[in-house]
Design goal:
single chain; alpha/beta; Alpha-Beta Plaits; 45 helices; 16 strands
Length: 1012
């Protein structure tokens, strides 16, 4: 079978063409008709209807009931709601179907109060005529529902938990009471008067639900509902433009009209308020509303009334005022006629402007009726040379409806800059919760819209998440998206699945031809929902627009959109994580809809494989948090025994161990060994498990056993890991020359495998051998820097592992500033990568540098930090290294008992690696000498010197000789101590270990054995 749009051959069972993304013939015939939207649901039920029916004649009862239903319906529809159904004596209404309004929650509350008021009027009549009264209870709840697109279909318009909770709230309300849910309270704004009555235990809800009793509804004035108490930020160009218009009318150039337009929340009302307050002209304001019971010129009447309340009526306009008082100023109507009303206004405003310019401002003009806009046009023309400025505030859609307004002065309000948004956020958080400044991601989500930023900041403490969509923002943007034509909506939906940025080509096919898609995108750009991006791309105007668009899609539409997106060339080129993410979400949504068929199984397998590959790549780049996320998702999607599943689980075990979640990593690796895995995965798991739990199997022994498996398979990564473990065994024995051959081989394998962790580990081990091995310090330091230059560019893990030994090499040359700079350079990427062991390694290396520098207090603090981290992580090898350094520090400070206590807690010299056993014996010998145990001290320090001679490490050999010199000096053998110190000085001098040379010289007899 071939694809109709592009003609390519279709794979068997495909739902969408892998080339163009068009649906196949046997795929979905049309887009899903459901959508998800935030609505407000209202339930109203009669109380005591059974008793009522028993006391009235059936015909009378029917008449009363019909009157009741008609009253309730009229209130619902007047406020923009839809009566979904009548259920017995109950009415269910939805605000947001078929069209979402940004103020649906407030409309529903106004309707509920209106229903009670209307019922009071009906009860007056019924009580007088029949001696009965009706009582109702009302529940209102706001939230996301699934809505059918066909309001005439014989099915419920909405469904979901939001509906159920609204019904339960109504059932818990008392007679004449209105109970509302928490999201309704938040969505309706600050002007709602309510008192808490919950939490309520509602039927069908496991957790109690917060509820509030509605007491009243205040004015929806923006100054009451918005945060105008914070500092006004930016808008200097806009203020200057308004100043210029005011100056023009003041200078006698006649009346003018200025249209200030911008999306909801950009601050049009605040701009006007600040400008009027700072310039203080004679002014009046009015607002248009989406519904109401006032005359069509009501907003103009409010503005004129405000002016007249401020300035005394001028002489000579008594007759004009009488005309206005009988019509416009009375109820907002143009009574007796539009012409007479306009003539009266011209007379009054002209007389007032003789004293100074008059400003009439009308807000929310996108809700203005045609008559109001026509009257404003007429006033501006007829005021001629009078100093009157009319400022209209509106959203951009007004220009779509009234293109003639573009002929006047138009001031487009854009979003705040990032810096201005940050300044506004600082003011908002300081005034409210005294929290830290808003995080960058939140500022970017707001997209420069002050209202969105305000709502996001307000919602974060309530929800505990900065990712939560505040219902106010969702309703505001949802109303704009819900009003789109089907093709525009389809294009926007699929774009939201792809991401913040997209191209027209990515939407071509399922959304129409290229020309149709581009035309739709241009219309969406005109609606300020998308905007042109670089290189012929488009992007959502803000992250919130994308989020709300996606949230408004049905799960079925999301599943199909992600399935289409997964085959896009742009997604494929972004890598397996992007492909796997789309397939995973497509499979997840289909599962939630109960559609786990063969097609869904194919999605699952594809997602598991792609996420597993992405996780392996992230691990190879040392991005542990990202690898953990990807591999967790891949492992969850794989079926038992499925190819790739064992690899995902094994890598996840390695990641968990590296992140310090050792028990989890151990369990996962054990699972791989216990299951029928292929030999290669079993080899990897065995080696990784030995590194996690060396008490179960020594890492070097495991490496020797599995190396041949890796060699036969040509597994470069496995060979790199095995070579590293074998090299580390030689290092622990103090044989750094032998270790070097394994490290060189391991590094070559790691480079060929492009594995950053393995490359970094091999280079770090090489740096330690350069520090502790026979290469003189200047040459070792130069070699370490060369390796850093060759391998460190762009590899954060390498910068950690090489800078630590390089810091010690700098300290051995007593270049203290360089040493500390290297440690700082290692600390920066360590904080980003998340390797748990760096919490021990970095302070341990830092303590070594400070001990070499003689800064004992700094060294002690760093060792305490390292010890705490080692104990928390359970890292035995590092814990012993920290203990040895701590014991040496105690002896430096004359704290013999403390040193003895630390050494006693170690597992014993036989359990230590050879080089550590040397140091342990030397330190124990010094403790024995300080405690007067003569023979034991000589035996232990002699053993340390003898064992050190078997290594090629000047650091180990010189340290053992120095410990013996200390012990001999304490025991009174001054000459023998001097000979040991002299031998130590020679060893340290050959290495270039300047602090060691200094320490040894201080123990020579001619220096009085003053130090250590």
């Amino acid at each position: 079978m071939n694809c109709s749009p592009c003609g390519r051959a279709l794979p068997s069972g495909a739902r969408f063409c892998p080339s163009c993304g068009a649906p196949c013939a046997d795929g979905p015939a049309a887009e899903a008709t459901e959508s998800r939207k935030v609505v407000t649901v209202l339930f109203c039920d009669l109380v005591g209807s059974t008793a009522l029916s028993g006391g009235l004649d059936p015909e009378t009862l029917r008449s009363v009931t019909l009157r009741y239903f008609d009253l309730m319906r009229r209130q619902i529809e007047f406020h923009g709601g839809t009566v979904e159904k009548f259920i017995g004596d109950a009415v269910m209404a939805v605000f947001g179907v078929p069209v979402v309004h940004e103020d649906d929650a407030r409309r529903a509350l106004a309707a509920a109060l209106g229903m009670l008021a209307a019922l009071d009027g009906l009860n007056t009549e019924l009580d007088s005529a029949l001696g009965v009264r009706l009582e109702v209870r009302i529940g209102v709840n706001t939230g996301q529902v699934v809505s059918g697109s066909d309001s005439s279909a014989r099915q419920a318009l909405v469904s979901g938990e939001t509906v159920n909770v609204a019904a339960r709230l109504e059932q818990n309300a008392g007679p004449g009471r209105i109970l509302i849910g928490p999201d309704t309270l938040r969505s309706a704004g600050a002007a709602v008067r309510a008192e808490p009555v919950g939490p309520l235990s509602l039927k069908g809800k496991a957790e109690p639900v917060a509820a509030y009793r509605l007491l009243g509804l205040g004015e929806d004035d923006p100054e009451l509902m918005r945060r105008f108490d914070v500092r006004f930020v930016g808008r200097d160009p806009e203020l200057a433009a308004l100043d210029a218009s005011l100056a023009a009318v003041r200078d006698g150039r006649g009346a003018r009209r200025v249209l200030v337009h911008g999306e909801a929340g950009l601050g049009k009302t605040r701009l006007l308020r600040e400008w009027l307050h700072s310039r203080a002209p004679l002014s009046g304001t009015g607002r248009c509303r989406p519904y109401g019971d006032r005359g069509s010129l009501g907003p103009l009447a409010d503005a004129v009334t405000s002016v007249l309340a401020t300035a005394p009526a001028p002489q000579g306009v008594t007759e004009a005022l009488a005309v206005l008082s009988a019509g416009l100023l009375l109820d907002g109507t143009p009574n007796p006629t539009v012409a007479e009303t306009c003539a009266a206004l011209v007379g009054v405003l002209g007389a007032l402007s003789a004293r100074g310019p008059v400003v009439l401002a009308i807000d929310d003009c996108h809700w203005a009726g045609p008559l109001l806009l026509d009257v404003v046009d007429r006033l501006v023309r007829e005021l001629d040379r009078d100093a009157v400025l009319v400022v209209l505030l509106a959203r951009p859609e007004l220009l779509d409806a009234r293109g003639d307004l573009a002929a006047s002065s138009v001031l487009a309000l854009a979003g705040l800059s990032y810096d201005e948004s940050a300044l506004l956020a600082a003011g908002l958080t300081e005034v409210t919760a005294h929290r830290d400044a808003a995080p960058r991601r939140l500022l970017e989500r707001a997209g420069g819209n002050p209202l969105h930023l305000e709502q996001l900041l307000a919602a974060a403490p309530d929800t505990g998440s900065e990712d939560e969509l505040p219902p106010t923002v969702q309703a505001l943007l949802g109303a704009r998206i819900d009003a789109l034509e089907p093709r525009e909506r389809g294009v926007l939906d699929q774009a939201s699945v792809i991401g913040r940025e997209f191209t027209a080509d990515e939407l071509t096919g399922p959304r129409g031809t290229g020309a149709e898609v581009r035309s739709a995108l241009l219309r969406l750009s005109g609606r300020r929902l998308v905007e042109p991006g670089p290189r012929a791309s488009f992007r959502f105007s803000s992250g919130l627009v994308q989020e709300v668009t996606y949230a408004s899609m049905s799960k079925r539409a999301r599943a199909e959109g992600h399935e289409r997106a997964a085959v896009l060339p742009s997604v494929r080129s972004a890598g397996p994580a992007a492909v796997g993410g789309h397939l995973e979400r497509a499979y997840g949504y289909r599962g939630e809809l109960g559609g786990l068929d063969a097609g869904a199984e194919s999605l699952r397998a594809g997602a598991a494989e792609a996420l597993g590959r992405a996780g392996a790549l992230a691990l190879a780049r040392s991005d542990l948090p990202w690898a953990d996320d990807l591999l967790t998702r891949s492992a969850a999607l794989h079926r038992p025994g499925e190819p790739g599943g064992a690899a995902a689980v094994r890598r996840l075990g390695e990641v968990r161990a590296a992140l310090g979640r050792t028990a989890e990593g151990h369990a996962l690796l054990k699972d791989v060994l216990a299951s029928p895995a292929d030999p290669l995965e079993a080899a990897h798991a065995r080696l990784a498990l030995a590194s996690v739990a060396p008490e179960e199997e020594a890492p070097a022994e495991a490496a020797a056993a599995v190396l041949t498996v890796f060699e036969r398979a040509g597994d470069e990564l496995g060979q790199a890991r095995a070579c590293l473990r074998l090299a580390q065994r030689h290092q622990s024995q103090g044989r750094h020359g032998a270790a070097d051959a394994w490290l060189t081989r391991g590094l070559a394998h790691a480079v060929r495998a492009d594995g950053e962790p393995e490359r970094a580990a091999a280079l770090g081990a090489t740096g330690i051998s350069l520090w502790r091995g026979p290469v003189p310090v200047p040459a070792a330091s130069a070699r370490c820097r060369t390796l850093l230059d060759e391998h460190g560019g762009g590899r954060r893990a390498v910068r950690i592992t090489l800078n630590c030994p390089l810091a010690v090499l700098s300290a051995l040359q007593e270049r203290w500033t360089d040493a500390r700079a290297c440690l700082a350079e290692a600390a920066r990427p360590a904080a980003e990568l998340g390797y748990a062991e760096t919490r021990v390694v970095l302070p341990l290396f830092g303590a070594t540098v400070e001990l070499l520098a003689g800064q004992l207090a700094r060294a002690r603090a760093l060792l305490d930090t390292a010890a705490d981290a080692a104990a928390e992580l359970g890292v035995t090898a590092l814990r012993d290294s920290v203990a040895l350094e701590s014991a040496r520090l105690h002896l430096e400070c004359g704290e013999v008992a403390e040193a003895a206590g630390v050494l006693a807690r170690m597992e014993g010299e036989d359990a230590c690696p050879h080089a550590e056993a040397v140091e342990l014996n030397g330190l124990l010998g010094r403790v024995a000498a300080a405690e007067g145990r003569h023979e034991e001290s000589l035996r232990l320090t002699a053993r340390a010197v003898s064992a050190a001679a078997q290594t090629d490490s000047p650091v180990v050999r010189g340290g053992a000789l120095l410990d013996r010199a200390h012990a001999l000096a304490l025991l009174g053998h001054t000459e023998r101590a001097g000979r040991a110190a002299a031998r130590a000085r020679a060893v340290f001098a050959a290495k270039g270990h300047l602090p060691g040379v200094r320490w040894a010289e201080e123990l020579l007899p001619e220096n009085g054995n003053e130090r250590r």
